[in-house]
Amino acid sequence: MISIIKATGKDFKILADIGKQTFIESHGESAPQKDIDSYAAEKFSYSALENELKNPGNIYHIIYYENEPAGYSKIVINFPHENIDLKNVTKLEKLYLLSAFHKLNLGTKLFEFNVALSKGLDQSGMWLFVWKENPTAINFYLKHNFKIIGSYDFPISATHTNPNHQMFVQY
């Protein structure tokens, strides 16, 4: 059984634990270990996620598989970007799925859920950043009609950034 539930303030531990694990799984070798560990400890601490959930502009959803949290998403509605001429666009900031659940098509279900939500809130498209060295993620978004429209150096630490594509799909 699959369910997608809007995250509430009480879900900060689930989000932090999944976020940290999936970040390390997908980016763990992209920078020196001390930089990865420091980034994960800061960005995926319980207090950081608790604060994220307090911001009404952040919309988090958790996907469950057989009542077990398998991943989560974060979108921000009406988040314009300089490379996009539309104002009513959604930023897909996070789409995280634990590796144990990769073969179950849950990432697609969570992604499609967020697109439907975005469209239902009168958005004209969705944009995101994706690490240039993650061909699986890039191909996933290309398959869903995203186009590469720019680049961004994602800061991991004060001394290390990861090159990212900016991708966009218009509805």
Verbal overview:
With 171 residues, the chain is of the alpha+beta class. It has a single domain, classed as Aminopeptidase (3-Layer(aba) Sandwich). It has five helices and seven strands; from the N terminus they run E-H-H-H-E-E-E-H-E-H-E-E. A seven-stranded mixed sheet has the order 1-2-3-4-5-7-6, with helices on both faces. Strand 6 and strand 7 form a beta hairpin. The mean pLDDT is 96.
In brief:
This protein is of the alpha+beta class. It has one domain: Gcn5-related N-acetyltransferase (GNAT) (Aminopeptidase, 3-Layer(aba) Sandwich).
**Secondary-structure element string:** EHHHEEEHEHEE
CATH superfamily (homologous) name:
Gcn5-related N-acetyltransferase (GNAT)
The biggest beta sheet reads:
7 strands, mixed
Helix fraction, binned, reads: 25-40%
List the helices and strands and how they pair.
Layout: E1 2-6, H1 12-27, H2 33-43, H3 46-54, E2 58-65, E3 68-76, E4 89-97, H4 106-120, E5 125-131, H5 135-143, E6 147-155, E7 161-170
Parallel strand pairs: 4-5
Antiparallel strand pairs: 1-2, 2-3, 3-4, 5-7, 6-7
Features:
171 residues; alpha+beta; Aminopeptidase; 7-stranded mixed beta sheet; 5 helices
